[in-house]
């Protein structure tokens, strides 16, 4: 969930100065229309890591909007009045009326997350609370409310830096308390809990908007633009007020995203490639023959641009396995039988038994990629698909399956080169179609869809691994190594007993490592080298 | 949830013979249209108490419908194939395709309920499973499926009788196994678990349809008619196939319902009334002054026909309390401020602190009564209100509040008498308005709304108490006695520690007792007498 918010987004002063006056004017207009319309309230939740600018953002909203119709509600320890009533009472009485906006600093999420981190609230109880919250928010949205949930994220290092900077500045030093530093110590715990909570409550009707908190200007502009977009979209909606309207996905504020942050120049020389390939193929061959694997199954999901090299990578994996053990499932347009079933049915039918491997060449993510971009399904359908897919992968995990997801990325230029090459080589000609050329024209829309997909479905339990596929050798080795490492840690965890939690932990670790790698790569370091 | 299914519904042979040919023809037509339309599947779950006719009903469906396009899937212990894959795999592969209907004998509910009863699945885990099921069913409905969930209910005595009858009949004796008798022993546990599961999963998009299983003809006719109604409604829906459409509420098959089953002839002589009134008012005065009550709050909700005597009953309750301790909240049309908030907001604002009492003269049930009947809100709104209200009362319970709900019922004739009386007596004239007269004309619609309300919101945690209010003395004493008994058992449970569970248990017991009373009353026994 946090990949996009660890890239080091920044807005320079000049851009900020140019953007803000337009944004403020538009926000005031939209707020005026909201009052005139008077049919729905706007509920803005400001949550996230300490020091990620929650307080500053609320001040910015006050500065930019008409404060007379904006109420802020800060929730810390409950009052006597509140403690003696049901838990949600304090939030009910703080709800903004129709035509108004309310900013919640601290919300119904704060207590459950804190109690869980402190060990006062077990996993099961936490999930029950999240279910209650989902029902509560569904009710709000059904009653017409526009619910915008912001989560401000900082990497651990980012949090330390921010706290130090705030301490130095006399204007903000008072904000940094002993508690702030103590919370840095529980950072990992918070991240794990937050990732879980965000996955559970990332509903189509009230999705989370994760914002990188490092840069003040980027953060303010993002929140301002999201609020504006959502307000405008909702005001323009011709449907009845009591119809749940999904807020828009986060707008692009700058050109930095999880894909552009990839370092596609990474390469592997032929000799090194051969050595590495042999090493990891050998390791994989051992791993799938371990007795422990007889209790698990492995699902490898490949997505990527056309001609990114999915097929080649798959062949390097299967080379290490017995043909009776694995199945490759190429996913193209659904058959008639499949179209007569719910979307995920065509993937469920291929779920492997324990001890077996299923490799999907394109996957259930088609719904939020090709189907979204080509309009094969409605907006409501692909919006709910994120949640459905997360639920689906969660079920697989619960049953002991190990799910590894790869996105293979190449540059437009390299794609063109490969297309042309394919047209020349006769045995590769069948691989290039008119459709491939058409897809290239929509590369902007696909780019956005991929970024949204990674933000919304790279969960602690089931992270995406982004593969720089410009160099085929580099890509294949990274993929094989990832498969081995994930498989190894899952099997080790399985032996320890509590397989589900351990696998979850290791995946979360992988995800963090992966994000770290993205950042490292931006700085020019290759992950393969890192390892050695 | 089970009130309506313990009334002893019966359909005589002649009616059945007359109805069935029409129903069969219509079902075949609808099934043909379903195939032609080909846009959605019909998923029918057959669940419930053993011996309530699950198998027989499936046979009837086969007899009445075109078996070529109807598949039945019986789920018992999973096969090897199934055990080695994720839990839901077996259900996914059994889903009927669009244009077809599938009958599930045993479903995704069976294992969690059984495991919970056997003690293998704790309350928290059970709730997590129910949350997963809700998400799964939401996905099915979003994908266009029509999901009909039947729960066949039998009272404990009814189950024993059925099993004996089946054992005697050589054609059915084979159905009765040792297991069947063993399950009779766990009847109470099953009922408690079922009530909880049905509450948690009674979603607007896939609500439960509870059917009394005692009489074969009644059961078959009900299922057939519900399937027919739902199919016809869904086929006639002009909206896009991917829009969730709520199935209709259970149709009325006969004239017997929770209201008509009440024995309104029950009376209390003046002398007895005075003695009883003094006794229970005294008891109530003691109870609200107990130190234990300082940790709880009491919420009494009154609904009833116009002129049913709510005000008089409330005054008999408040007479036992200190004016500083209670608040009466008369609920009329919402204020402007209240209209600018989600529907339940106006009730949340009046939630009492611990140690206090709130008495609602009309309540949050207005949404499913007057607002439904008068069309003040859309169908989707009052349909989701059942779930929202159950969630709301669950939250109150969790916070230690004791919630007692009364429905006061009088006959049309008695209502007319009281209306006329009110017009005559000057100080009562303000109590009768043109609206009251108008409401009388809609008494049929109100009757249906009240029955649906009781079926859908009388939960184990928060049961309705139906009050025969034809005789004011009888009604007032029944109300006071119920308040005292509920309060006493809740305070006792609270002292024991685990207040929530205990309170839940006692409410479930009350509900069962209440249903028992309804049945008893049909047989001419008064509950007041029962006690003495």
UniProtKB/TrEMBL annotation, chains A, B:
<dbReference type="InterPro" id="IPR027417">
    <property type="entry name" value="P-loop_NTPase"/>
</dbReference>
<feature type="domain" description="Polyphosphate kinase-2-related">
    <location>
        <begin position="11"/>
        <end position="234"/>
    </location>
</feature>
<feature type="compositionally biased region" description="Low complexity">
    <location>
        <begin position="513"/>
        <end position="526"/>
    </location>
</feature>
<dbReference type="GO" id="GO:0043751">
    <property type="term" value="F:polyphosphate:AMP phosphotransferase activity"/>
</dbReference>
<feature type="compositionally biased region" description="Basic and acidic residues">
    <location>
        <begin position="492"/>
        <end position="512"/>
    </location>
</feature>
<dbReference type="InterPro" id="IPR022488">
    <property type="entry name" value="PPK2-related"/>
</dbReference>
<protein>
    <submittedName>
        <fullName>Polyphosphate:AMP phosphotransferase</fullName>
    </submittedName>
</protein>
<keyword id="KW-0808">Transferase</keyword>
<dbReference type="Pfam" id="PF03976">
    <property type="entry name" value="PPK2"/>
</dbReference>
<feature type="region of interest" description="Disordered">
    <location>
        <begin position="492"/>
        <end position="532"/>
    </location>
</feature>
<feature type="domain" description="Polyphosphate kinase-2-related">
    <location>
        <begin position="268"/>
        <end position="492"/>
    </location>
</feature>
<dbReference type="InterPro" id="IPR022489">
    <property type="entry name" value="PolyP_AMP_Tfrase"/>
</dbReference>
<dbReference type="GO" id="GO:0006797">
    <property type="term" value="P:polyphosphate metabolic process"/>
</dbReference>
